[in-house]
Amino acid sequence: MSEQPTLAQVAAAAGVSPATASRVLTGSVRVSTSTRRQVYEAVSRMGYVRQRAPRGSVSRNPVTGITAVICDHLPRLFSEPYYARLLSASGAVVAENGTHLTITTVNPTSSVLPTLSGAVLLVGARERHPLAIKLCTSGITVRNIGRPPHDLKLPFADVDNYDGGRQAAEHFLLTGRKSVAAIGGPPSLPAARDRLDGLVKTLREAGVAEVPVAYGDFTAASGTHAMQWLLRHAPGLDAVFAASDLMAAGAMQALRRAGRRVPADVAVIGFDDAPVARHTNPALTTVRQPVEEVATIATRLLLSGTTGIDPILPTELVIRDSA
């Protein structure tokens, strides 16, 4: 059996220095998305495993296929842009490798382990999700999209959701907004909590004592309802952060109906940089998360059987007209 590749060999294959490769793999500093992708692609291609990884962390049996398990209701699979972006990118990698991608949905509270083909790409598992708990002890090769639910030891690939919330807060502060509210995603979803925490903690550090929060489920309708609630309970707000672009679009509809101008009266920032962000009126300022990059890297790591590395890619504030 050939020797395991070294960090220096991975760095050379990625076209970066060993120091840069090390920083990418430890997540200690911000590195560009393109550089991270180069390093992670080299890692997955070469089967590199960090020394802290447990013995046997590279699969001895090649992965013959991947099942994407979406922990959501079936209609959401077709209505939520995030899933389309993620599955399209993952499917492209699988096709390049001559294997297959199977897609299945499970109820958000289901404990039934579906029929699985090959390794598992787990998407949308919330806190104490019974299926995620089962997968941890199933012996099946799994990689979670997003930081896994609390206390679950699953390999993952994620974006820096906390920093995305921080960037939104700093933009509001720099543009003189004084009364910021938020529309959070489901509190049981780690990504939603991280986005809200980044916003709220940054605002509090700047002296903003109270941040009213309403919650939605990442749909436009829930954003509309949450915004209506905020207008009743915090009528003096002059900025709102929504944890998804669809919720931000719904919030803008509610503001328009209430006679509030965006951004003159209320600035709005979303999260995702989904296609809808470019088609709202005004165009939506949002935090871009590199969904396709995360899906590509996670799928490559699954196919190679590589563990011991949990990529976290940076987010980026995209300034348009709504804030």
Automatic annotation (TrEMBL):
Keywords: DNA-binding, Transcription, Transcription regulation. SMART domains: HTH_LACI. GO terms for molecular function: DNA binding. This is LacI family DNA-binding transcriptional regulator. Pfam families: LacI, Peripla_BP_3. PROSITE patterns: HTH_LACI_2 (PS50932). It comes from Nonomuraea ferruginea. Residues 5-59 form the HTH lacI-type domain. InterPro entries: HTH_LacI, LacI/GalR-like_sensor, Lambda_DNA-bd_dom_sf, Peripla_BP_I. Gene3D superfamilies: 3.40.50.2300, lambda repressor-like DNA-binding domains (1.10.260.40). PANTHER family: HTH-TYPE TRANSCRIPTIONAL REGULATOR GALS (PTHR30146:SF109), LACI-RELATED TRANSCRIPTIONAL REPRESSOR (PTHR30146). It comes from the Bacteria.
